[in-house]
User: Which sequence fits this backbone?
């Protein structure tokens, strides 16, 4: 079967007008969702480890609930239902940002919980012995070590998050995949556009994975 693939229509103008705009949004969404997910995920992890039922129960329900639903469904629910509740649309891009932060917080929560639990109890007891409160102990002793230990896992989850940004295509947000799709339709070359998108996703994710492996080796040496 001859597909008659032709990539000659790719040039700098096409990349600048279609691809870069989507790539910028995908990267921005990844960064915001990672930072927001780590922040709220850490709070959820602390709630689950607090031992107080009033904090443990809602945090557990939230984390398990989010982790049990496909991300694309959460994106669609938020995009379609929230405007009905508040009476006005909030836009595909804003919906994507809020949804990703809320969804990724559940996954980063489990990573941070594992990181916190990996810290030897002797470290916690040492902090208590010098008069630190629970908050001071977590902020100054436990969390810095947990972040260091979990950094490769956090970055791996960030790579997965970047791949998942292509799901905002379902609500019409202009991400990198959307940029390739629009370019392919405009030039009548959808197959070449999707192939090029797959190659670019692979290059970005493979490069980041290689960096994470190197970082993991350095952290292992430090330990």
Assistant:
């Amino acid at each position: 079967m001859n597909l008659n693939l032709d990539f000659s229509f790719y040039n700098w103008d096409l990349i600048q007008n279609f691809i870069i705009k989507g790539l910028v949004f995908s990267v921005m969404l990844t960064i915001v969702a990672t930072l927001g997910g780590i922040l709220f995920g850490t709070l959820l992890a602390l709630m689950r480890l607090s031992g107080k039922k009033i904090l443990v129960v809602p945090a557990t329900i939230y984390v398990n609930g989010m982790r049990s639903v496909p991300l694309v469904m959460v994106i669609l629910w938020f995009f379609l239902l929230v405007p009905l509740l508040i009476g006005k649309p909030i836009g595909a891009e804003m919906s994507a940002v809020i949804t990703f932060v809320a969804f990724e917080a559940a996954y980063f929560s489990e990573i941070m919980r594992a990181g916190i639990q990996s810290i030897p109890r002797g470290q916690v007891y040492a902090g208590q012995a010098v008069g630190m409160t629970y908050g001071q102990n977590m902020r100054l002793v436990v969390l810095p070590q947990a972040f260091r230990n979990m950094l490769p896992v956090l970055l791996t989850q960030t790579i997965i998050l970047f791949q998942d940004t292509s799901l905002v295509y379902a609500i019409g947000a202009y991400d990198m995949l959307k940029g390739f799709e629009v370019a392919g339709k405009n030039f009548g070359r959808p197959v070449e556009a999707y192939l090029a998108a797959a190659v670019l996703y692979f290059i970005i994710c493979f490069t980041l994975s290689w960096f994470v492996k190197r970082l993991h080796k350095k952290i292992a040496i430090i330990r």
Q: What stands out?
A: The CA atoms of residues 27 and 39 lie 18 Å apart. The first helix runs from residue 12 to 49. The chain has a mean pLDDT of 87. The radius of gyration is 21 Å.
